[in-house]
């Protein structure tokens, strides 16, 4: 990790997040350095949707080069459903599969527009990636896999449903 200039941080520490933002800004300002690869979802999902992006990657400025990645499950499923399979079962399935195939699409570069904030920019990039990969756009993050859904989020969804009905 030291040779490839990883930027490690503890997401729950606000000081760390500010430090990472500063390091990323410095990195993208230095034209001699290679581009940074960021997975703004913060976690993996089951190959059907694109979850909410963390806004930090979109606050630092610079040009975003979106990449859509979608696994082809014909030979093996790269997604690990930890509620269904143990880690050993998953590793066995992956290691004994014929191949793990994925489609990768390099999309046109995107820049934050003048009136756009980081959240709207992240959502615009997310929508482009989801459209190219043929996936759904989800308005929530991967925390729902591990935490209880907030009551306010449930109420918001119920209000939207009531408006439809």
From TrEMBL:
Residue ranges of domain Phospholipid/glycerol acyltransferase in the record: 1-70
Keyword Amino-acid biosynthesis attributed: no
Single GO cellular component term: endoplasmic reticulum membrane
Source species, domain of life: Eukaryota
Single GO molecular function: glycerol-3-phosphate O-acyltransferase activity
Functional pathway: Lipid metabolism; Phospholipid metabolism; CDP-diacylglycerol biosynthesis; CDP-diacylglycerol from sn-glycerol 3-phosphate: step 1/3; Glycerolipid metabolism; triacylglycerol biosynthesis
Compartments where found: Endoplasmic reticulum membrane
Cross-referenced Pfam families: Acyltransferase (PF01553)
GO biological-process terms attached to the record: phospholipid biosynthetic process; triglyceride biosynthetic process
Oxidoreductase in keyword set: no
Membrane topology: Multi-pass membrane protein
CDD domains assigned to the protein according to its UniProt record, in alphabetical order: LPLAT_LPCAT1-like (cd07991)
Family matches, as InterPro entries: LPCAT1-like, Plipid/glycerol_acylTrfase
Keyword terms, alphabetized: Acyltransferase, Endoplasmic reticulum, Lipid biosynthesis, Lipid metabolism, Membrane, Phospholipid biosynthesis, Phospholipid metabolism, Transferase, Transmembrane, Transmembrane helix
Family label: Belongs to the 1-acyl-sn-glycerol-3-phosphate acyltransferase family.
Protein name: GPAT3 acyltransferase
Species: Herpetotheres cachinnans (Laughing falcon)
Gene that encodes it: Gpat3_1
